[in-house]
Structures
1.
Amino acid sequence: MGTVPFLCLVLVSALTFSFTSSTSLNLSMGSSLSVENTELMSPDAVFSAGFFPVGENAFCFGIWFSEPPTSTRNITVVWIANRDMPVNGQRSKITLHKDGNLVLYDIDRYTVWSSNTVSNSSAHLHLRDTGNLVLLAADGLVLWESFASPTDTLLPQQALTRNTKLVSSRSLTNYSSGFYSFYFDNDNTLRLLYDGPEVSSIYWPDPWLLSWQAGRSTYNNSRIATFDSLGNFSSSDNFIVWTIDYGAKLQRIFKMDVDGNLRGYSRKGQGDAWSVSWEAILQPCKIHGICGANSYCSYIPSSGRKCSCLPGYEMISKTDWSYGCHPAGFDLSCKSSPEEVFGFVHLPHIEMFGYDYAVYPNFTLDQCKSLCLHLCNCTAFHHKFGNGQYQCYPKAQLRNGYRTPGFDGDLYLKLPKALLNATSKDGNNMCSNKLTSQLDRRYNKGNPNGSIEFMLKFASGLGGLEVVCIFIVWFFVTRRTSGGQQDSELELLAQGYLQAATGFRRFTYSELKKATEGFKEEIGRGGGGTVYKGILSDQRVAAIKQLNAANQGEAECLAEVSLIGKLYHMNLIEMWGYCVEDKHRLLVYEYMEHGSLAKNLSSNVLDWKKRYEIALGTAKGLAYLHEECLEWVLHCDVKPQNILLDSDYNPKVADFGLSKLLNRGELSSSNFSTIRGTRGYMAPEWVHNMPITSKVDVYSYGIVVLEMLTGTNPTECNVQCVEGGGETQKKMMIEWVMERMNGEFPNAENKMGAENEKGKLEILVEVALQCIEDDRDARPSMSRVVEMLLHHEL
Ligand SMILES: *[C@@H]1O[C@H](CO)[C@@H](O)[C@H](O)[C@H]1NC(C)=O
Ligand SMILES: *[C@@H]1O[C@H](CO)[C@@H](O)[C@H](O)[C@H]1NC(C)=O
Ligand SMILES: *[C@@H]1O[C@H](CO)[C@@H](O)[C@H](O)[C@H]1NC(C)=O
Ligand SMILES: *[C@@H]1O[C@H](CO)[C@@H](O)[C@H](O)[C@H]1NC(C)=O
Ligand SMILES: *[C@@H]1O[C@H](CO)[C@@H](O)[C@H](O)[C@H]1NC(C)=O
Ligand SMILES: *[C@@H]1O[C@H](CO)[C@@H](O)[C@H](O)[C@H]1NC(C)=O
Ligand SMILES: *[C@@H]1O[C@H](CO)[C@@H](O)[C@H](O)[C@H]1NC(C)=O
Ligand SMILES: *[C@@H]1O[C@H](CO)[C@@H](O)[C@H](O)[C@H]1NC(C)=O
Ligand SMILES: *[C@@H]1O[C@H](CO)[C@@H](O)[C@H](O)[C@H]1NC(C)=O
Ligand SMILES: *[C@@H]1O[C@H](CO)[C@@H](O)[C@H](O)[C@H]1NC(C)=O
Ligand SMILES: *[C@@H]1O[C@H](CO)[C@@H](O)[C@H](O)[C@H]1NC(C)=O
Ligand SMILES: *[C@@H]1O[C@H](CO)[C@@H](O)[C@H](O)[C@H]1NC(C)=O
């Protein structure tokens, strides 16, 4: 359809512009719309209602945005009448009967859906400018409206109520009801639910949080949520969000997406692509049910999430991960002597949420193994340190699997002994979410030469070697050699990433000026700019970094913003927003109560326990950067000034992604070793012009740990000691450390409780020395460091 001529030719004079542009049409009693020939249009032509194709000769009656035209099949559908029963392409119709009932018929007058309304006056069907399809009585009374029965999309002013919910589609091409829904629960709280064929569970807000912990109120039972065209979504349970582009009057929708994420989308004009302006779940692997049973999800920012079967298991459906994996020809059923038949495969950092038999506190690994061997239904167990002891969690089912370096527990998978050498079977990014494909389309708008998208793919394909730095060089080079075209492309890219993040918003300069009371209180100053303390309009205390504007183009700023926004970890500094306005470039971060590690180190307030925790937390943050992102993000400037401490002295790594963009003035050629890092913390690779890998961060981390141990900034030590090379360097370093550790400790030992923590101290020294090995292959990975620190094992 689409290009099909309109029945209503009353307004033919208007057709000079375009065949659909200025037509509106009401359906009166006794008339019908059919698949072949008609659709309704809202008076402003933004929405259409009618039949649209959902498959071979299959149609649904629904409402969609008129642009792009239906013939492209890329329409944005906002409502469907009985999505689960598409009708035949011929002789199906929707009729407004004389008794006031609106009925959708399939071929042979088979009723697929009806409005169940009655009216003896003359009613008519009308599509309003809001996208609401209404059945109006003669007196203007609304007998029925599509807003009262949403499908998977909310429009501005359309309320989600106690009686309605958004249900995702089954897939991108199948509009049938899927497994994910957004609804008001019995406790008046908005939630996201996975309701799969075998199990169901709530995954948002985080299921282990009580409502009030998630910032929700359970008291108001009016159960109503709406949003406006400026991007303010608010609900009676106190859940309020502003989209990143809040304030602009745009076309907007909130949609329960097929991948289980709730997203806000916006676009400027009718034909533009939609961009994500908010999403509920930052870490898409946390969405339940995506990879099915016996598998786990890993997340790669450049390509989305990926499912993999656990070792020994294989995929059930070759095309649909929601079916998960099943045992590849073995069974775990009861055996008389399980010790002889089964063993365990150790899988670090894999979380399997839920489905525990029970928790067994104070269980050693061997006790836990024995327990699981003898529990016939035990498929695996978690062995996890918490509350000062190891705890054992035998699992009845393996679901909601998620591999993340941030998870401290280890999974031990029970398998027949013959299969203990099995490895995970990876999927080829089949779960990669819709967002990625949308971004692809956006990039193509720009100059295809020098596409960043290509760089990204290239990067992840190579496993992330040298990528960031090359990326940056490329970035500068291209920026210098080309003009505005590149800028707008970068901006598109940046926005693309930005969209993927949530909690973000764009601030105006005057807002931030007000928040900082005219940039009054300076709390830090670095190469890239000055940091001020500010209080946002919602009372949150923020650190607002004003970048040196002269160096910072809009696209660069957005690129930086996007990089940070994409990454979320408790040991990485969180970004709340940004401002790009004329010459002004500002970034809004969470405020860190205790400033930088550098400052607190010099003031000697940190005892050994805290120092250990800081070393561990920093390692976790870096491990996340390196591994979750497949080495895509190297920090390249790890130093105490970039490790910030919150009110509990939890460390958060700051400034990743930023420094490389700021130091561009120093960049003279593609010799990037001159632009990265800080003297004293830089790995020998920089000096020797060797490939830059994540091990440069490991090296810098090692130096930071040494600094925490000795209280001395290694840059103050003999220059050769850090930047020489070879065995002598290491010897001198060890000597230097030992000197300070044994005798003249710069800090009074007793005061800092060093005596009690001797074991931990030794581990820190050992870790630090391994990290600063000259040979980068001899250095441990960041996640290995986390393991060593967690388990005190070396
Ligand atoms: C269609 O219905 C709307 C709302 O009831 C009314 O304002 C408009 O005049 C009608 N248009 C036509 C062409 O009947
Ligand atoms: C529709 O979208 C797909 C990708 O989803 C794209 O490949 C195709 O070109 C689009 N078609 C039109 C006509 O825009
Ligand atoms: C329909 O007609 C009946 C009686 O003929 C009347 O009682 C009723 O109020 C009418 N309903 C409407 C919606 O006009
Ligand atoms: C769409 O999904 C439903 C529910 O899973 C299924 O019954 C139906 O066959 C699917 N339709 C198509 C065209 O694949
Ligand atoms: C957002 O909407 C809610 C409810 O409509 C309103 O109370 C609130 O003031 C709005 N916030 C902003 C910033 O407009
Ligand atoms: C409950 O929420 C609704 C909608 O947000 C609001 O209008 C109403 O005032 C609230 N009631 C109470 C008692 O807070
Ligand atoms: C844990 O178990 C060991 C030996 O089984 C016991 O000595 C220790 O006191 C237990 N610890 C706690 C906290 O219960
Ligand atoms: C083990 O699983 C089987 C089937 O999955 C079930 O019938 C049985 O009750 C389970 N046993 C225990 C102890 O949970
Ligand atoms: C598993 O691998 C190890 C070494 O890689 C080998 O010695 C052992 O025989 C293998 N076991 C099985 C059951 O294949
Ligand atoms: C891309 O580069 C090729 C060769 O380097 C050139 O022929 C082509 O015109 C370029 N395309 C655009 C859109 O600049
Ligand atoms: C850590 O350093 C910050 C910044 O200098 C300072 O405000 C804070 O008080 C220090 N912490 C302690 C416990 O002294
Ligand atoms: C990069 O810089 C180093 C020292 O700063 C120099 O030795 C080396 O030759 C330079 N490499 C290139 C490719 O310019």
Note: Residues 26, 126, 136 surround 2-acetamido-2-deoxy-beta-D-glucopyranose (ligand 1) (CB under 6 Å).
2.
Amino acid sequence: MLKVLVCFLLSSLLFVLLHPITAATSYNVVDFGAKPDGKTDSTHAFLVAWAGACGSVSPATVYVPPGSYLVSRAAFNGQCKNTDITIRIEGTLVAPSDYNVLGSSGYWLTFDGVTGVSIYGGTLDGQGSGLWSCKASGKSCPTGARSLTFMNSKNIVIDGLSSKNSQLYHIVIDSSKDVKVRGVKVTAPGNSPNTDGIHVQSSTAVTIQSSNIKTGDDCISVGPATTNLWVEGIACGPGHGISIGSLGKDVNEAGVQNVTVKTVTFTGTENGLRIKSWARPSNGFVKGVLFEDATMQKSQNPIIIDQNYCPHSEDCPGQVSGVKISQVTYKNIHGTSATEVAVKFDCSSKDPCTGIILEDVNLTYDNQPAESSCTNADGTTSGLIEPTSCL
Ligand SMILES: *[C@@H]1O[C@H](CO)[C@@H](O)[C@H](O)[C@H]1NC(C)=O
Ligand SMILES: *[C@@H]1O[C@H](CO)[C@@H](O)[C@H](O)[C@H]1NC(C)=O
């Protein structure tokens, strides 16, 4: 009898000790009514599963089994009761095919104010083609929605997610900290409007690694107030390249500082490595950027700084950019340009670019000599520089 009691006590103790570690509570969306048929609106089931995981005092998992789930606009909000939530997706989340459902809401799936959330796997299908056609027809259309947004969040992982045909940007990291994006696959047609792959703004310590991005706008775009960004191992194209900017749209704007972009291949892109600012007054800046080990395969503008961005002549004709660009290094950049001018620094006459460094750059144009063009740009070179530097 005593033996049994001791045994029972010991096993109870073991259970109590091990339970929180081994048995993360799992919330399967199908158990809450989600239907993997691609047409039943499963939004409510996803929100209930999230509420369970978010409300759990121990680590929790939201599980999305294989299949296709229609999800209309969904906001997954914090604060949660634990800081270890895994979202394991084996299926596909599909946005409503009628673009009027998301309309001009700006967002499809959002995570706001969460800490310690990791998404593994899964596919997001933004079904953007209807909206793109509407926009192409010149009719008046809603602005659309970004597919996946994290805002006001920290300790986030997005690993192995595929995102296709977003109405607007595919993945957005906004006002967040310590975010790791890796093994992500973005696909949208080369002519789809405003379908940036990954957009980062007002965030710090974001890393984007080992990802493949084919889209109609920037593969990666970096907005104001971004610091300590690390981008490495990206295949980009079709697309508009990797862009810091547009910056300086507003007079008061926080700067971009400490950005590394390493080992990127650009295939048939409109730009390669770009920094872009509006030709408007602004106190914004870009400081401390390293572009290293890039391969260009027929990029139209492999290396470009454009401080005269003024689309549709919106409040900028005759003005110059106030954004100060300094300490930008291009190291070991090679391959082919699809246009004669492979290196273009078109900087502000009011605030010229300073501290530009070119080191081992070899860009060719259709087996002919390529050219460089500099306006208000100052810097130094080392190693082989082809085309001849204009700094
Ligand atoms: C620059 O950012 C990297 C991460 O991308 C970080 O490791 C490094 O400490 C930052 N440097 C400074 C001076 O903050
Ligand atoms: C620059 O690249 C071209 C094309 O890849 C190559 O033929 C050429 O030898 C390179 N120049 C130098 C000096 O390495």
Note: Residues 2-22 form the longest helix (21 residues).
